[in-house]
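Its record is retained below.
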Amino acid sequence: MKLTTKKLESLIQEMMGRRFTQEQEQKILGIIIKCNKLMLDLQDVQGFFPTIINGVYSYDDTIKAIKDLTAGPRQKQKIMIHYRATQRIANILEELNQYLVLLTDLELEPGNLARTTKGMLFGGALLSPTTATGINIKLDELAGLMDTGIMFLEDIESATPGFFGEGNLGFEYMRDVADSFHNNYSDLFDYLERIA
């Protein structure tokens, strides 16, 4: 059997792993673009993490501080905006998680697709929501702030039961989604760092 250049290239590709077809690369690019769009949607979330969160925890008696805080309509409005913003972030992250896992599982090969993924999903311009005070949150810091923001909501519900209404408020779900995002985002970054 004569080993032609074409057969040799095919053999090398087979030894290195699978190669995506142009159609598959286009589909993967579509996933990357969707991830980028969802990350940009995070930047549009308003009212997340108001200063009152840090203010409450500066008091020795947190329960009293929360009860005082929730007594006025102005502060209640800020709290409800934060609650809705936290829910919105969790919903975006839930969808984003699926795509991040898929991109990691696809085991992108070194080359243009991997560089494109890294640039579009880990480029320096990407941020997550801006806090209510105007501070830009980095994507790798989002899970920590979500945890603190959710803890604040849990403390309000504990100090003033029924503040957010009845039923499951989704605090654990939101926390789990944020933690999963942190892990999935880190895993994809680590993978791309290894192959790039």
Remarks:
- The longest helix spans residues 73-105.
- The two ends are 36 Å apart (CA to CA).
- Residues 11-16 have pLDDT under 50 and may be disordered.
- The CA atoms of residues 136 and 184 lie 21 Å apart.
